[in-house]
Structure to design on (623 residues):
């Protein structure tokens, strides 16, 4: 029997790494290491101590060398998404700008409810060498530093000021990252001196620990209220969010929908809950949605929201639904379950749906309602088929999406983010298999595409190494953050990257024009500070980082290049110019609230403002 008083002397950094190496999770009866490793860029704030500790565990906690701290965080998010929040990666950065670069990635993980452990350098606890390189000085508050800014974008935040502190902080951080309701990034600030301080840690603190994701049971009274509302419904509808997949509740969602013949619509995060050929999959909902989903959303009298945080792109800024419709919010997080006066069912989606299936036996939605939804679905599929067809207009996002969709295998993964591509992928993508779509629109973060795909590919290589990860990115996002093309080549984690070049930030130019303003500072050609615009040679740039690459001029050429990319043994970048004005998906959009000037000398801006205000009349009021 182990002596409970036995101790081992370790530095703080050594103890953190040893603890992480001994954390495991049980997934479908199989144990695997909870932390898949990490992404790191070393500096004076983390290399002497944390770097030493990580070196000794490099075989069990592989450390991927990042090119940019922000993209490291995006890669960790992509990894966590692939593993459905059941595994995570850590990111380590030096004190100062290295850590500051992680803040955007932490915000992305916070918005998307994704686990990510941030191990960041901090200023000296003793303050004896102050002010040190890169330290921010607050004259009236010497304890305040850059790392305090992470409190706004972390679910768990701590600064380690004594070696014993991690005995409490590390388990708390992991518990937060694995909690279905509170899941998100955990931040540990590690002062440079404290990292190297020693402590006699209890040996049993480092015992192997097996974690399991908690499934919280819903309250039976809340289930009963939800059942009563559904049984009285004439036009029920299910919104399937990303939480359905995180809960592993796809089978239960499908069973409930089929048993009761309730139409299902998907959020952006919930894309790939049902495949395209399922008769009750009525399409994506909201601002980036489909005519089919939005047409039934505005008619539904009971809306069963499962695992969605109901952000404005889902709700059309709360104009997508009839004002009198009753929402039932099924969510592990109380905050999300109670939005807009919903009947809350606070609990795990899988458990909640299992209970509802048992109590809804015999209930079947009116066949005319289900038939209406399915007829709308047929019309939307016909629209998409025409929209993605090569030659139906100038080169477009939709055409590129259709070509890749037709050539990809069902288990290949598609990644997109920010700009115009989330809307185009969400509206036009035909889901071939469950859980294969990652459209980052929780934080709508440009630059996620390539970095997030690299993280997803690392995860995919663990389970499905024969499958591809395919990235859709615009030229704006590519120019913002492309260094993980190099990372993917170095680490031999192949990506297929489609760079669709529309000459700038074309989707924001489209929004600018839609609210009555002139094109200004979005398209390269419309920037008054650019005397001589020119196009970037993206293929040459990618080749300089070791990728295979080529530029194509048409969708037909893109199809042949995509086949070459599939056959390639390393990252392959294909660039194609698309039209910045024509070729957008014009159907399927709900109203979306944007701020417009109340006063302007421009008649078109005044007209657009009136249109926005008219749309607001349909806005549902709630909390």
């Amino acid at each position: 029997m182990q002596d409970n008083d036995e101790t081992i002397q370790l530095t703080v950094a050594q103890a953190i790494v040893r603890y992480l190496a001994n954390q495991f999770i049980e997934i479908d009866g199989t144990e695997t290491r909870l932390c898949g490793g990490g992404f790191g860029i070393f500096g004076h704030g983390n290399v002497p101590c944390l770097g030493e500790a990580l070196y000794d565990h490099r075989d069990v906690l592989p450390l991927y060398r990042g090119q940019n701290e922000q993209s490291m965080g995006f890669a960790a998010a992509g990894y966590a998404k692939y593993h459905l929040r059941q595994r995570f990666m850590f990111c380590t950065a030096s004190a100062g700008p290295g850590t500051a670069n992680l803040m955007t990635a932490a915000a992305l993980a916070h918005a998307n409810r994704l686990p990510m452990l941030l191990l960041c350098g901090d200023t000296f606890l003793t303050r004896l060498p102050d002010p040190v390189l890169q330290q921010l000085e607050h004259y009236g508050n010497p304890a305040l530093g850059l790392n305090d800014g992470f409190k706004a974008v972390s679910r768990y935040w701590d600064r380690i000021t004594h070696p014993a502190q991690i005995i409490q902080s590390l388990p708390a951080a992991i518990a937060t990252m694995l909690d279905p309701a509170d899941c998100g990034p955990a931040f540990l600030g590690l002062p440079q001196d404290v990292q190297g301080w020693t402590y006699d840690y209890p040996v049993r603190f480092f015992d192997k620990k097996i974690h399991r994701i908690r499934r919280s049971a819903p309250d039976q009274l809340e289930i009963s209220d939800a059942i009563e509302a559904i049984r009285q419904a004439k036009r029920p509808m299910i919104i399937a969010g990303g939480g359905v997949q995180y809960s592993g509740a796809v089978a239960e969602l499908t069973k409930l929908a089929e048993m009761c013949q309730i139409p299902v619509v998907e959020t952006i995060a919930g894309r790939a809950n049902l495949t395209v050929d399922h008769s009750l999959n009525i399409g994506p909902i909201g601002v980036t949605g489909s005519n089919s989903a939005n047409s039934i959303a505005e008619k539904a009298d009971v809306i069963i929201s499962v695992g969605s945080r109901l952000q404005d792109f889902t709700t059309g800024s709360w104009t997508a639904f009839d004002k009198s419709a009753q929402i039932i919010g099924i969510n592990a997080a109380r905050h999300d379950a109670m939005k807009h006066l919903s009947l809350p069912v606070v609990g795990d989606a899988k458990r909640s749906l299992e209970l509802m299936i048992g109590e809804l036996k015999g209930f079947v939605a009116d066949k005319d309602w289900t038939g209406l939804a399915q007829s709308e679905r047929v019309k939307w599929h016909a629209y998409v088929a025409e929209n993605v067809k090569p030659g139906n207009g100038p080169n477009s996002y939709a055409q590129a999406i259709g070509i890749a969709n037709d050539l990809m295998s069902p288990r290949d993964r598609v990644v997109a983010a920010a700009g115009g591509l989330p809307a185009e992928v969400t509206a036009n993508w035909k889901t071939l298999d469950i859980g294969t779509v990652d459209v980052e629109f929780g934080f709508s973060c440009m630059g996620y595409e390539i970095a997030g795909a690299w993280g997803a590919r690392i995860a995919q290589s663990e389970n499905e190494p024969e499958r591809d990860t395919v990235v859709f990115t615009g030229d704006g996002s590519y120019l913002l953050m492309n260094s993980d093309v190099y990372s993917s080549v170095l680490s031999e984690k192949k990506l297929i990257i489609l760079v669709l070049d529309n000459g700038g930030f074309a989707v924001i130019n489209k929004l600018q024009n839609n609210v009555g303003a002139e094109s200004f500072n979005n398209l390269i050609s419309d920037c008054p500070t650019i005397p001589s615009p020119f196009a970037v040679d993206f293929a040459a740039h990618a080749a300089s980082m070791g990728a295979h690459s080529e530029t194509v001029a048409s969708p037909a050429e893109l199809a042949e290049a995509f086949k070459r990319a599939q056959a390639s043994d390393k990252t392959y970048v294909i660039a194609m110019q698309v039209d910045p004005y024509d070729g957008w998906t014009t159907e399927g959009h709900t109203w979306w609230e944007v701020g417009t000037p109340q006063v302007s000398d421009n008649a078109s801006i005044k007209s657009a403002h009136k249109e926005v205000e008219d749309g607001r009349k349909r806005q549902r009021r709630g909390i």
Summary: The longest helix spans residues 367-387. The CA atoms of residues 331 and 346 lie 5 Å apart. The two ends are 56 Å apart (CA to CA). The chain has four domains: 7-211, 220-380, 393-577, 593-623.
